Structure prediction request, 201 residues.
Amino acid sequence: MISPIFFTFKKMKKIAFVLLVLFTGAMSHAQDFQKRNVTVLPGSDLTIIGDSNIAAFQCEFETSYLNGTQQITYSQTGNEIKFTGAILSLNNRGFDCGSKGINRDFHDLLKTDQYPRIQLEINQVTLLSPSRGLATVNITIAEKQKKYEVPVNIKNGEIAEFRGRLEVNIKNFNLEPPKKLFGMIVVKDVIEIDFNLLVKK
Prediction:
């Protein structure tokens, strides 16, 4: 007959072994996370394109408003890369729509005086091929955050290039398109964000 003490000892050894495996796996996973300093270069392009019942307009971001080098944390499992701290913070005043009147309407739309920044945070990129990916991005406008999946073209190198396009309905951020001339000129709800980011690693 097996003694209860021997049975309990075997059971404790088994539990200890399982915990050791789990702990080792967790440590190995934690070591997969890497830190890297990155800089979005001034040659990058970011444009917001809108339309009205009269004419289209576009507002280009002056990249000198971008912050300098920042540190991000990332890990890769298979074709999925997860990020922490990959945030692009855009000062609304950095956008130029081509004229004072359109600039004023643009900032009225975004409530710039109250919410001076647009924030784009990359959470994950799923690599579909060496040159294509699908990015999961949180966009915050007027303190309202929405998650989007954005197809991205990728060009690797010492200076990496990320190019993509995203359509956003501004009403999802509780923003109301401006109307001019007693409602005769109406800005459409959907705007397009085009970007071509040059990133030095």
